[in-house]
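Protein data:
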Amino acid sequence: MKLRTPNAGFTLVEVLVAVALLATVTAAVALALGVVMQNSEELVVREVAEGLAHDLMDEILNCRYCEPGLSPYAALGPSPSEKATGNRSLFDDIDDYAGLVDEPPHDKWGRLLGKEGDNGQRPSPAMASSLENFRREVKVQYVSSTNFAQPLSGSSVSDYRRIEVTVYWKTRSGQLRPMATVVRVVGHAPTETW
């Protein structure tokens, strides 16, 4: 004959308490992982945005201050012939970039960044599609010679130009969020012959 021990199993109340605790802990861990994953994605997006901003700023800073033979105090912006190509291949001085909007990001010759080969026929491992949600905008402004953060209004000019490249990320809801901004101030020596 077998002897029965009275405490050989769990009661229904104990099982329900254990399940409730397990569900609570699982929900907390899932929530924490979701936050970590979201923050990780944002960090990656910010890092890519920084690279895109610096890439365009480097391109701009490799140009002359102004068009040869023209006044360094001319109105900012590309000429109609420079804009006619539909890309930046004829942008040869800093002010040509004033007002530029580049969405999705392209190189100077109009090819999507992240593509390589003949007209982008061979995508790189980074895949250009991952850059489709980025937008780059450029401001070029004359600034005060005593306060480089102070843009000059109207037709006022100075010996200094402030270049600002801002990279935006298009969220899933379609909103543009600024992710990176790079600012440089450049000047010219007024004694130069233009």
